[in-house]
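A.,

Following up on our hallway conversation. C-alpha coordinates first:
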Protein backbone atom coordinates (compact mmCIF):
# COMPACT_ATOMS: atom_id res chain seq x y z
CA UNK A 1 0.00 0.00 0.00
CA UNK A 2 2.04 2.94 -1.24
CA UNK A 3 -0.43 5.21 -3.02
CA UNK A 4 0.17 8.78 -1.85
CA UNK A 5 -3.55 9.28 -1.43
CA UNK A 6 -3.69 6.38 1.03
CA UNK A 7 -0.80 7.72 3.08
CA UNK A 8 -2.64 11.04 3.21
CA UNK A 9 -5.93 9.38 4.15
CA UNK A 10 -4.62 6.86 6.70
CA UNK A 11 -1.51 8.51 8.13
CA UNK A 12 -1.65 12.31 7.82
CA UNK A 13 -5.34 12.55 8.66
CA UNK A 14 -4.88 10.22 11.66
CA UNK A 15 -2.23 12.56 13.11
CA UNK A 16 -4.34 15.64 12.42
CA UNK A 17 -7.33 13.92 14.05
CA UNK A 18 -5.36 13.31 17.25
CA UNK A 19 -4.32 17.01 17.28
CA UNK A 20 -7.93 18.12 16.82
CA UNK A 21 -9.12 15.77 19.58
CA UNK A 22 -6.55 17.37 21.89
CA UNK A 23 -8.19 20.74 21.18
CA UNK A 24 -11.82 19.59 21.39
CA UNK A 25 -11.58 17.06 24.22
CA UNK A 26 -11.34 13.30 24.61
CA UNK A 27 -15.07 12.60 24.23
CA UNK A 28 -14.49 13.35 20.54
CA UNK A 29 -11.79 10.70 20.20
CA UNK A 30 -13.77 7.52 19.50
CA UNK A 31 -16.23 8.92 16.92
CA UNK A 32 -13.42 10.76 15.11
CA UNK A 33 -11.08 7.76 15.17
CA UNK A 34 -13.56 5.24 13.71
CA UNK A 35 -12.58 5.61 10.08
CA UNK A 36 -13.64 2.44 8.34
CA UNK A 37 -16.58 1.80 10.57
CA UNK A 38 -18.11 5.14 11.47
CA UNK A 39 -21.33 3.61 12.81
CA UNK A 40 -21.58 2.48 16.44
CA UNK A 41 -24.42 0.20 15.30
CA UNK A 42 -21.96 -1.72 13.08
CA UNK A 43 -19.50 -2.03 15.95
CA UNK A 44 -22.26 -3.23 18.30
CA UNK A 45 -23.34 -5.86 15.75
CA UNK A 46 -19.77 -7.13 15.44
CA UNK A 47 -19.21 -7.07 19.20
CA UNK A 48 -22.35 -9.12 19.86
CA UNK A 49 -21.65 -11.49 16.96
CA UNK A 50 -18.12 -12.11 18.28
CA UNK A 51 -19.46 -12.40 21.86
CA UNK A 52 -16.87 -9.97 23.22
CA UNK A 53 -16.46 -10.23 26.97
CA UNK A 54 -14.20 -8.68 29.62
CA UNK A 55 -10.56 -9.73 29.48
CA UNK A 56 -10.62 -11.18 25.94
CA UNK A 57 -7.59 -10.36 23.80
CA UNK A 58 -8.95 -8.53 20.74
CA UNK A 59 -6.51 -8.03 17.87
CA UNK A 60 -7.56 -5.17 15.58
CA UNK A 61 -5.72 -5.56 12.26
CA UNK A 62 -5.44 -2.28 10.35
CA UNK A 63 -6.61 -0.49 13.47
CA UNK A 64 -6.04 3.00 12.04
CA UNK A 65 -6.30 5.66 14.72
CA UNK A 66 -7.81 3.12 17.13
CA UNK A 67 -11.44 4.21 17.52
CA UNK A 68 -13.10 0.76 17.11
CA UNK A 69 -10.69 -1.01 19.50
CA UNK A 70 -11.08 1.76 22.08
CA UNK A 71 -14.87 1.51 21.72
CA UNK A 72 -14.72 -2.27 22.30
CA UNK A 73 -12.49 -1.83 25.36
CA UNK A 74 -14.76 0.85 26.83
CA UNK A 75 -18.07 -0.94 26.18
CA UNK A 76 -17.07 -4.63 26.55
CA UNK A 77 -13.92 -4.64 28.70
CA UNK A 78 -11.79 -6.45 26.09
CA UNK A 79 -7.98 -6.06 26.07
CA UNK A 80 -7.19 -4.74 22.60
CA UNK A 81 -3.95 -5.06 20.68
CA UNK A 82 -3.79 -2.72 17.72
CA UNK A 83 -1.82 -3.56 14.59
CA UNK A 84 -1.32 -0.82 12.03
CA UNK A 85 1.40 -0.21 9.39
CA UNK A 86 1.16 3.62 9.21
CA UNK A 87 3.51 5.22 11.78
CA UNK A 88 1.57 8.43 12.39
CA UNK A 89 -1.67 6.48 12.78
CA UNK A 90 0.07 4.25 15.38
CA UNK A 91 1.19 7.31 17.32
CA UNK A 92 -2.28 8.87 17.02
CA UNK A 93 -3.93 5.74 18.47
CA UNK A 94 -1.44 5.58 21.28
CA UNK A 95 -1.85 9.31 22.06
CA UNK A 96 -5.65 9.24 22.04
CA UNK A 97 -6.29 5.90 23.76
CA UNK A 98 -3.08 4.71 25.41
CA UNK A 99 -3.64 1.22 23.96
CA UNK A 100 -0.83 -1.14 22.90
CA UNK A 101 -0.06 -0.64 19.21
CA UNK A 102 2.14 -2.83 17.02
CA UNK A 103 3.52 -1.05 13.97
CA UNK A 104 3.37 -3.87 11.44
CA UNK A 105 1.73 -5.15 8.28
CA UNK A 106 -1.22 -7.53 8.51
CA UNK A 107 0.61 -9.93 6.17
CA UNK A 108 3.23 -10.58 8.87
CA UNK A 109 1.72 -10.33 12.34
CA UNK A 110 4.44 -10.52 15.02
CA UNK A 111 2.35 -12.57 17.46
CA UNK A 112 2.46 -16.22 18.45
CA UNK A 113 0.30 -18.79 16.70
CA UNK A 114 -3.01 -19.28 18.51
CA UNK A 115 -2.41 -16.38 20.92
CA UNK A 116 -5.45 -14.20 20.19
CA UNK A 117 -9.06 -14.72 21.37
CA UNK A 118 -10.84 -12.65 18.74
CA UNK A 119 -9.86 -10.44 15.78
CA UNK A 120 -11.36 -7.50 13.94
CA UNK A 121 -10.35 -6.17 10.57
CA UNK A 122 -12.52 -3.19 9.69
CA UNK A 123 -12.44 -1.37 6.37
CA UNK A 124 -9.01 -2.84 5.63
CA UNK A 125 -9.33 -5.65 3.09
CA UNK A 126 -10.29 -3.35 0.21
CA UNK A 127 -7.03 -1.43 0.74
CA UNK A 128 -4.93 -4.61 0.50
CA UNK A 129 -4.02 -6.38 -2.73
CA UNK A 130 -3.01 -9.69 -1.13
CA UNK A 131 -6.11 -10.23 0.99
CA UNK A 132 -5.41 -13.95 1.39
CA UNK A 133 -2.06 -13.19 3.06
CA UNK A 134 -3.73 -10.94 5.66
CA UNK A 135 -6.56 -13.38 6.36
CA UNK A 136 -4.16 -16.33 6.62
CA UNK A 137 -2.05 -14.47 9.17
CA UNK A 138 -5.13 -13.57 11.20
CA UNK A 139 -6.15 -17.23 11.06
CA UNK A 140 -2.70 -18.28 12.31
CA UNK A 141 -2.73 -16.02 15.39
CA UNK A 142 -6.34 -16.81 16.38
CA UNK A 143 -7.13 -19.70 18.68
CA UNK A 144 -9.03 -22.44 16.79
CA UNK A 145 -12.74 -21.70 16.76
CA UNK A 146 -12.23 -17.98 17.55
CA UNK A 147 -14.30 -15.22 15.97
CA UNK A 148 -13.30 -12.79 13.26
CA UNK A 149 -15.34 -9.59 12.76
CA UNK A 150 -14.99 -7.90 9.39
CA UNK A 151 -16.28 -4.77 7.74
CA UNK A 152 -15.58 -5.06 4.03
CA UNK A 153 -16.39 -2.72 1.18
CA UNK A 154 -17.54 -5.03 -1.61
CA UNK A 155 -18.08 -4.31 -5.29
CA UNK A 156 -21.37 -5.18 -6.98
CA UNK A 157 -19.61 -5.84 -10.29
CA UNK A 158 -16.16 -6.09 -11.81
CA UNK A 159 -16.03 -2.46 -13.05
CA UNK A 160 -15.72 0.35 -10.48
CA UNK A 161 -15.60 3.95 -11.69
CA UNK A 162 -13.85 6.08 -10.57
CA UNK A 163 -11.85 3.68 -8.33
CA UNK A 164 -10.19 5.40 -5.35
CA UNK A 165 -6.38 5.10 -5.50
CA UNK A 166 -4.98 1.89 -4.05
CA UNK A 167 -8.35 0.22 -3.44
CA UNK A 168 -9.17 -3.28 -4.69
CA UNK A 169 -12.76 -4.10 -3.84
CA UNK A 170 -13.62 -7.82 -3.78
CA UNK A 171 -17.02 -8.94 -5.00
CA UNK A 172 -19.17 -10.72 -2.45
CA UNK A 173 -18.49 -14.10 -4.13
CA UNK A 174 -14.73 -13.48 -4.09
CA UNK A 175 -14.87 -12.61 -0.41
CA UNK A 176 -16.81 -15.75 0.48
CA UNK A 177 -14.27 -17.90 -1.42
CA UNK A 178 -11.36 -16.03 0.18
CA UNK A 179 -12.63 -16.69 3.70
CA UNK A 180 -13.12 -20.35 2.94
CA UNK A 181 -9.64 -20.67 1.36
CA UNK A 182 -7.94 -19.06 4.37
CA UNK A 183 -9.56 -21.33 6.95
CA UNK A 184 -12.64 -19.39 8.05
CA UNK A 185 -16.25 -20.45 8.24
CA UNK A 186 -18.56 -17.58 7.38
CA UNK A 187 -21.40 -17.63 9.90
CA UNK A 188 -23.35 -14.49 9.09
CA UNK A 189 -23.17 -11.35 6.97
CA UNK A 190 -25.40 -8.31 6.71
CA UNK A 191 -25.38 -4.89 5.07
CA UNK A 192 -23.88 -2.31 7.39
CA UNK A 193 -26.35 -1.58 10.21
CA UNK A 194 -27.79 1.90 9.97
CA UNK A 195 -26.16 5.24 10.60
CA UNK A 196 -24.73 6.88 13.68
CA UNK A 197 -26.85 8.98 16.05
CA UNK A 198 -26.33 12.75 15.90
CA UNK A 199 -24.50 12.77 19.23
CA UNK A 200 -21.83 10.58 17.59
CA UNK A 201 -21.69 12.09 14.09
CA UNK A 202 -21.63 15.67 15.45
CA UNK A 203 -18.46 14.91 17.41
CA UNK A 204 -16.84 13.34 14.34
CA UNK A 205 -17.87 16.33 12.21
CA UNK A 206 -16.50 18.82 14.76
CA UNK A 207 -13.12 17.07 14.61
CA UNK A 208 -13.27 17.03 10.80
CA UNK A 209 -14.03 20.78 10.80
CA UNK A 210 -10.99 21.54 12.97
CA UNK A 211 -8.80 19.36 10.70
CA UNK A 212 -10.14 21.20 7.63
CA UNK A 213 -9.51 24.64 9.13
CA UNK A 214 -5.94 23.76 10.05
CA UNK A 215 -4.90 21.73 6.98
CA UNK A 216 -7.08 22.74 4.03
CA UNK A 217 -4.10 24.15 2.14
CA UNK A 218 -2.00 20.99 2.58
CA UNK A 219 -1.80 18.85 -0.60
CA UNK A 220 -2.28 15.73 1.56
CA UNK A 221 -5.61 17.14 2.76
CA UNK A 222 -6.78 17.58 -0.84
CA UNK A 223 -5.73 14.01 -1.69
CA UNK A 224 -7.57 12.53 1.31
CA UNK A 225 -10.66 14.63 0.60
CA UNK A 226 -10.65 13.49 -3.03
CA UNK A 227 -10.52 9.83 -1.91
CA UNK A 228 -13.48 10.51 0.38
CA UNK A 229 -15.49 12.08 -2.46
CA UNK A 230 -14.86 9.04 -4.68
CA UNK A 231 -16.10 6.72 -1.93
CA UNK A 232 -19.21 8.84 -1.43
CA UNK A 233 -19.95 8.69 -5.16
CA UNK A 234 -19.39 4.92 -5.35
CA UNK A 235 -21.67 4.24 -2.36
CA UNK A 236 -24.34 6.65 -3.67
CA UNK A 237 -24.29 5.07 -7.15
CA UNK A 238 -24.58 1.58 -5.65
CA UNK A 239 -21.27 0.36 -7.09
CA UNK A 240 -19.96 -0.59 -3.65
CA UNK A 241 -21.50 -1.36 -0.27
CA UNK A 242 -20.26 -2.14 3.22
CA UNK A 243 -20.83 -5.65 4.60
CA UNK A 244 -20.49 -6.63 8.26
CA UNK A 245 -19.32 -10.22 8.54
CA UNK A 246 -18.93 -12.72 11.36
CA UNK A 247 -16.67 -15.70 10.63
CA UNK A 248 -14.92 -18.24 12.85
CA UNK A 249 -11.52 -19.80 12.49
CA UNK A 250 -12.09 -23.44 11.49
CA UNK A 251 -10.59 -25.96 13.89
CA UNK A 252 -8.05 -28.32 12.34
CA UNK A 253 -9.42 -31.87 11.95
CA UNK A 254 -9.04 -33.80 15.22
CA UNK A 255 -8.65 -30.65 17.35
CA UNK A 256 -10.32 -30.92 20.76
CA UNK A 257 -11.02 -27.56 22.43
CA UNK A 258 -9.37 -27.09 25.84
CA UNK A 259 -11.60 -26.78 28.85
CA UNK A 260 -11.36 -23.57 30.90
CA UNK A 261 -9.44 -25.48 33.59
CA UNK A 262 -6.86 -26.69 31.05
CA UNK A 263 -6.37 -23.15 29.71
CA UNK A 264 -5.21 -21.89 33.13
C1 LIG B 1 -10.25 2.64 6.21
S1 LIG B 1 -8.95 2.51 7.37
C2 LIG B 1 -9.79 1.71 8.72
C3 LIG B 1 -9.13 1.94 10.05
C4 LIG B 1 -9.84 1.27 11.23
N1 LIG B 1 -9.93 -0.17 11.04
C5 LIG B 1 -11.22 1.84 11.46
O1 LIG B 1 -12.20 1.14 11.22
O2 LIG B 1 -11.31 2.99 11.91
C6 LIG B 1 -7.93 1.18 6.69
C7 LIG B 1 -6.70 0.90 7.52
O3 LIG B 1 -6.07 -0.29 7.02
C8 LIG B 1 -4.67 -0.11 7.16
N2 LIG B 1 -3.97 -1.06 6.27
C9 LIG B 1 -3.74 -0.97 4.95
N3 LIG B 1 -3.00 -1.99 4.50
C10 LIG B 1 -2.75 -2.78 5.57
C11 LIG B 1 -2.03 -4.00 5.76
N4 LIG B 1 -1.40 -4.61 4.74
N5 LIG B 1 -1.96 -4.51 7.00
C12 LIG B 1 -2.61 -3.90 8.04
N6 LIG B 1 -3.29 -2.74 7.91
C13 LIG B 1 -3.38 -2.18 6.69
C14 LIG B 1 -4.48 1.35 6.78
O4 LIG B 1 -3.22 1.86 7.15
C15 LIG B 1 -5.66 2.00 7.47
O5 LIG B 1 -5.33 2.42 8.77
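Then the amino acids I'd put at each of the 264 positions:
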Amino acid sequence: MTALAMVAEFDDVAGWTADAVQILGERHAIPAACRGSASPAALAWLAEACELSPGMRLLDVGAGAGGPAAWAAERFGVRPILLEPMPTACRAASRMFGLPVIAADGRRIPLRTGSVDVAWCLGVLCTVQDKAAVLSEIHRVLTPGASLGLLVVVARGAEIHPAPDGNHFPTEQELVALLDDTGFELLEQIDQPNGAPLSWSRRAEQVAAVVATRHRSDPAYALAAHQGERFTHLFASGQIRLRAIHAVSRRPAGHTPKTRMEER
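The chain is about 45% helix and 20% strand. Curious whether your intuition agrees with the design.

B.
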